Each structure stands twice: as structure tokens, then as C-alpha cells.
Amino acid sequence: MRDYISAKKREEFKSGKSIDCYKFLGCRRYKKESADGFLFSVWAPSARSIRVVGDFNDWGRRDPLSGYMDRDDDGIWHFFTTEVEEGQYYKYLVEHQNLTRVLKSDPYSRCSELRPGTASVVYDQKPYRWHDNKWMDARKEKDHVHTPMNIYELHLGSWRRATNDNPSQAAFLNYRTIADELAKYVKEMNYTHVEIMPVSEHPFDGSWGYQTLCYYSITSRFGSPDDFRYFVDKMHKEGISVILDWVPAHFCKDESGLYNFDGNWAYEPTDANYRENILWGTANFDYGKGEVMSFLISNAMYFLKEFHVDGLRVDAVANMIYIDYERIVQADLRNVFGGKDKLEGINFLKELNKSVFSNVENPIMIAED
Fold it and tell me: What is the pLDDT of residue 9?
């Protein structure tokens, strides 16, 4: 099944040039010969074995051989089955070389179980009927630099609740309800843009989304991916631009996430001095790996292309470009030239902007810090 990813796409992914690797990694509907089913694909180059377990095979108990993935030469594992149904939960049971086994969420899952659960959800995206063609056409010619911007930043989970005295899951409003109420408020207050705190899936409400678990999953706290599409669509119909806070600087260390994914630090640096973000209790990305660059750049493109988001506010840029930014370390860390600039991070930001401005018409890119 090596041909399920073209040679060109493989090379782009490995070299950090991919802008759409979410289209061939993760879980997606796939037709193998005459059989319709779902194909699971995950990058984990150092894993000893990986098994897909979930509702479809009673989490591995029903059949001891079900779900085992095959590995190709690029460190990508894949498994095809006709037994999976949309909406079912799944995870990857990743076996490290030391025989440790850890259940991991799918890094490329489009939808996730509502917290505190962390399972990925089998999701088959159907075509969404957008109503913002006039907005998208007009955006192409808009002068973001010289046009006034009055930005209203908000956290969707706390801006407004269904009740004032119920902090439970039921208190959250759906993306659609928020959109209808927010659009009215923003127009009354004469704001031109809304900036939303991160909507990628995250385990802890108190992080406000800044410690991400699954980058491609729209958090299920407020509904489905299509509900979020409605949110953006509604804002555009009301003449309001949507900027999304995005966090490519670090990620949460919860066991089910990216941290030590394959037993050999796939997404983060091997050296703990560069890997561990002690101040924030998170892990830093390793921008020196092409596959990590592709993961993040494709994620930015995912929001800009698949959800019509008008721009990204890139969080914690200083942490990405300075080795010693608020670092609590004993070692005197320096780059190959003896300086404190994080060269890989700087290169990542250059490639990110190059990809975005080459493939998205007139986006907004903002650096925080």
C-alpha cells in the first residue's frame, strides 16, 4: 500500500515542504480495490509496532490480531479496514522499542472525544456549503495594513454560557449559537475582527486552548467541525473577519498526545535542555525535522483553507526564535554560531509565511510576543 501516498507527497512531507499532509495522514475514507472502508496512517519512525484499537474491535479484546499496522520505509504506518463506522472512537496503541505500550490520540484526527476523554473519532468530512463567496472575493483586494482594525479577542468557552451558575459541560454553547449572538454584539460595538483563542482540542479547560493535544481536531466542547465552519461563515456574512490564535511553539505533555509519541521523541528535540519547557510545563517542537515542519505548516493551511479563517495570530513566537527565552536551565545553550537565536525556529517561521502567502489569497499573519 505504499502507493497510497505519491512519491512527490512523501518527499514534501519528509523535507518540511508539505502544505496538506492532513489529506493523507490520520483516518480517512479510502477505497481499496472494490472495498470501501477507512485507512489509518500515522508517522512514528521509531515505534516497534502500532495497533489501531477502538470501538470497532472492542479496543483490541475481540480479536488479538485486529488493527496491527504495517510500516513503510518512511516511518509511516497504515491500516485499512471495512469494519470501522463513522463516529466510533479509536486510538493508536504504540509499542516503543523498550516494549512499553502507550495509547495515543491520532495526531491528525479531525474530531476528538469530549474531554476528559481523549480518544480520536472516525470522521468523514462531507462537502460544506459555504455562503461567504462575496467575502472571500472581497478579501483578495483588502489592504490589511492601511485599513483600520478593531479586534475583539475572546475565549469561546467563557464569553457566554448557557447558564450563569452551571460550569458543567452543558453550560457551553454551540459554535452556531455563539456565532449568532457574537455577530450581533460585535457589530453593535463596531469591531471589525474577532480573534478567537485556540480551538484545537486540548485536555484542560484552564489552558484556554494554549496547551494543545490534537492540532487538527476542532474542540468538541462547542460542537463539530461543520459547526465551526458555520461560525466562520456567519462572521463573514456579517462583514466580520476571523483571526485564530494558533500555537506552534509548544504542546502539552499529556500521555495521550504528541509527547514521546514513538518512544524516541518524534515531535520534540531529543536533548531535554531544548525539549522541556519547564516554565510552562510543556514540550517544545523540533523544527529541525521536516516531518514536524510539515505537520505544523499543514495545520496552518488546514485552518486557512478548510475553514476559511482570515488569519492566524501565532502564539509565543519569542519561544520559537530564542534558545534562552524564559528558560529555566543550567546549561549554556547556543546555536552552531555561538548565538542565542534558535535557527531552526526562525527557518520554520520563514517557511510558514512563504507557504501561507503563496497559497492563500491575502491572509493576515500576526506574531505574538
Answer: 95
Quote the distance between the C-alpha of residue 346 and its chain's center.
20
C-alpha span between 294 and 317 (Å, rounded): 18
Task: Identify the pLDDT of residue 256.
Answer: 97
CA distances from 43 to 8, 238, 354 (A): 17, 41, 24
Rounded distance, CA 17 to CA 350, Å?
12
Instruction: Note if 368 is an active site residue.
Output: yes
Phi-psi region for residue 325, left (φ > 0), alpha (ψ -120 to 50) or beta? beta
Which residues have CB under 8 Å from 207's CB, separation 6+?
A: 252
Distance CA 287, CA 289 (A): 5
- Taking a C-beta distance cutoff of 8 angstroms, is the pair 95, 68 a contact? no
pLDDT of residue 2: 63
**CB neighbours (10 Å) of residue 148?**
5
Is the peptide bond between 116 and the residue preceding it cis, with omega within 30 degrees of 0?
yes
How far apart (Å, rounded) are the C-alpha atoms in residues 67 and 81?
A: 8
Tally the C-alpha atoms within 13 A of residue 315's C-alpha that lie toward its C-beta. Answer: 20
For residue 224 the three cell numbers come to 463539530
Counts for the chain of helices (H) and strands (E), in that order: 9, 18
The active-site residue out of 11, 70, 137, 368 is: 368
Of the candidates 195, 315, 344, 351, the residue annotated as catalytic is 315
- The yes-or-no answer on residue 255 being catalytic is no
Going by their DSSP bridges, the two strands 311-314 and 364-367 should be labelled as: parallel
For residue 8, what are the contacts with CB-CB under 8 A and spacing of at least 6?
A: none
Quick check: helix, strand or coil at residue 194? Answer: strand
Peptide bond into 107 cis (omega under 30): no
Distances in whole angstroms, Cα of residue 286 to Cα of each of 157, 206, 281:
30, 26, 16
Instruction: Name the DSSP class of 170.
Output: G
Q: What does the pLDDT read at residue 113?
A: 97
Q: What is the mean pLDDT of each run of 10 residues along the chain (369 residues)?
A: 84 97 96 92 98 97 93 96 97 98 98 96 95 96 94 95 61 94 97 98 94 97 97 98 98 97 97 92 97 98 98 97 77 89 97 98 95
Count CB atoms within 10 A of the CB of residue 354: 12
Give the CA count within 13 Å in the CB-facing half-sphere of 354. Answer: 11
